[in-house]
Automatic annotation (TrEMBL):
Keyword terms, alphabetized: Dioxygenase, Oxidoreductase
Lineage start: Bacteria, Pseudomonadati, Bacteroidota, Cytophagia, Cytophagales
Single GO molecular function: 2-oxoglutarate-dependent dioxygenase activity
InterPro entries, sorted: Phytyl_CoA_dOase-like
Pfam families on file: PhyH (PF05721)
Protein name, entry field: Phytanoyl-CoA dioxygenase PhyH
SUPFAM superfamilies: Clavaminate synthase-like (SSF51197)
Cofactors required: Fe(2+)
Domain of life: Bacteria
Length: 271
């Protein structure tokens, strides 16, 4: 067994420095900002320089306040970026998953790009999650792995993840329900939180049973990050349970935009 796997199995996580190419991570971050910029232009009637961080983030906050539905929909669209999905199948990631013990890694849920700030949330738990385990929302193989990394340098001031080492060995904790996340009461946990620090390119691999939480973003900036989840198709209990899938995707039956599209609009597209 490799030293990497030994450390992972013991602590429940490994933080790999300079794991991803910084230019690749930066390009994904830039593409996500550009998608928001298209809707900022439509909603606020002004263009914004996505490379001017203070101006762009100010525009993000204005967009959130002006048209929350469009903001939420734009946030959903960034989850479908081809570059983000391509990264989820990158051999560097899948090879590392195998090194950690996943004999047959499969994607557990579609990739997620997150943008956390108290200015982009209607409730506190929408931007700062309390102590929880990701397995509760995935319910996949017992050796499920979560891959998390920020798209910007992230330390304690930006609310980077905090973890409880070795908590994955305690199984599934009791928790209260907060929407789709189960929050673990403080009295069930030992106060041995480890604050993690990231540079662009650093990647965290951790057990879906590892207890973790968001740090406090005390800045005016947005904490951009990516989360990927994987199951192991050859884990015995996953096979025995018939490969359950907790995430359900289905189309909406009604037209979102009534009386759309017009024939003239179709002709314009295919002219």
């Amino acid at each position: 067994m490799s030293s990497l796997r030994d450390s992972y199995k013991q602590e429940g996580y490994v933080l790999l420095k300079n794991f991803l190419d910084k230019d690749l991570v930066t390009a994904i971050h830039r593409e996500g900002r550009q998608i928001f910029a298209y809707q900022i232009q439509r909603t606020l009637g002004k263009s914004v320089d996505i490379d001017d961080q203070p101006a762009f983030e100010k525009a993000m906050y204005e967009f959130f306040a002006a048209d929350f539905t469009a903001f939420a929909n734009t946030g959903k669209q960034v989850q479908h970026m081809v570059s983000l999905h391509r990264l989820g199948t990158d051999s560097r990631i899948t090879d590392t998953l195998k090194e950690l013990g996943l004999d047959y890694p499969v994607i557990g849920v579609r990739p997620a790009m997150l943008f956390n700030s108290r200015h982009l949330a209607k409730r506190d738990d929408y931007w700062r999650l309390g102590a929880h385990q990701d397995w509760r929302t995935g319910q996949g193989s017992l050796d499920s792995v979560v891959v998390w990394f920020p798209l910007v340098p992230a330390g304690a001031d930006l609310g980077a993840l905090q973890v409880l080492p070795r908590s994955h060995r305690n199984g599934l904790y009791e928790s209260s329900s907060v929407d789709y996340i189960g929050t673990i009461p403080d009295e069930l946990l030992q106060d041995e939180w480890q604050q993690l620090e990231f540079e662009v390119g650093d990647v965290l691999f951790f057990s879906a049973f590892l207890v973790h939480r968001s740090g406090i973003n005390s800045t005016e900036s947005i904490r951009w990050s990516v989360q990927l989840r994987y199951n192991n198709l050859l884990e015995n209990t996953f096979i025995e349970r018939g490969y359950p899938l907790a995430y359900i995707y289905k189309p909406q039956a009604e037209l979102i935009t009534p009386d759309f599209p017009a024939v003239s609009q179709m002709n314009e597209i295919f002219n």
